[in-house]
Amino acid sequence: MGDSVRGLTVRRLGVVPYAQALALQERLVSERRSGRVGDMLLLLEHPHVITMGSSSDPEHVLVSAEERDRRGIDLVEVGRGGDVTYHGPGQLVGYPILDLKPGRKDLHRYLRDLEEVIIRAAGSLSVAAHRSPGLTGVWTATGKLAAIGVRVSSGWITSHGFALNVCNDLSWFGTIVPCGIHDRDVTSLSRELGREVTLDQASEAVLEAFGDVFQRAAL
Predict the structure, then answer these.
(1) What confidence tens digit (pLDDT) does each residue in 94-120 have?
(2) What is this structure's pTM?
(3) What's the 3-state SS for 161-176?
(4) Angle at 207 between CA 86 and CA 195, to 5 degrees
(5) What domains appear along the chain, each with residue ranges and CATH number?
(6) What is the pLDDT of residue 3?
(7) For 132-159, how does the pLDDT look when each residue is reduced to its tens digit (9 = 90+)?
(8) Which spans in 92-181 are helix H?
């Protein structure tokens, strides 16, 4: 039997520096674990930043420190799973702060559920998206649409999450080997449709899909 529907507080935060968002997540994870807050979904954008997860290869960062400084790109090592990712303006980043107890204490299922959210959201915007066997994330026929990297801390509280390419300049992905995958391109909702998709449009699609997949009702 699935979980009953729970409330979900959605916070649309605009553009937030990565380090500031990381500190916010840490605080909210602690508050969620203690029951001071309920389940939450943070939706935001980051300024240009390269992040390195627990399995990152430094060689997957293709720009020097000098070049990063010149182009205004931060580099941050983080405590999520996965390899190297890039975040920047026009990309919708979602950080679910969820208590997976009692019925969702399964990391593999959680990753597949996040993929399902993106697949459904993309589909509602007329973009056909899918999983790729053996890999985490969401793809279209032309490239990777969304990266997913999560952390599940003690008490089965989630943080980190997904990054969906909406209307971002995809040339910035040339600064990294995205998620350590050399032979796959990246794409965005706007590129797939040949027209601009706004972050607000993508956010609404994601929220509807998130509620359906996770049985959460936005408060």
Answers:
(1) 999 999 999 999 999 999 999 999 999
(2) 0.94
(3) EEEEECCCCHHHHHHE
(4) 60
(5) 6-214 (3.30.930.10)
(6) 58
(7) 999 999 999 999 999 999 999 999 999 9
(8) 107-124
Residue 58, preceding bond cis, omega within 30 degrees?
no
Place of tokens 């998709």: 197
Q: Which helix (H) or strand (E) holds 51?
A: strand 49-52
- Kind of pairing between the strands at 144-153 and 216-218: unpaired
The confidence band for 54, taking pLDDT boundaries of 50, 70 and 90, is confident
- Tokens, residue 10: 């959605």
- Give the sign of the dihedral formed by CA 66, CA 67, CA 70, CA 71: negative
Q: Which residues contact 41 (CB under 8 A, 6 or more apart)?
A: 8, 9, 10, 11, 94, 95, 96, 97, 207, 210, 216
* Residues annotated as catalytic (active site), given as ranges: 179
Residue with tokens 């009692």: 102
- pLDDT of residue 183 exceeding 70: no
Question: Rounded CA gap, 162 and 150, in Å?
Answer: 8
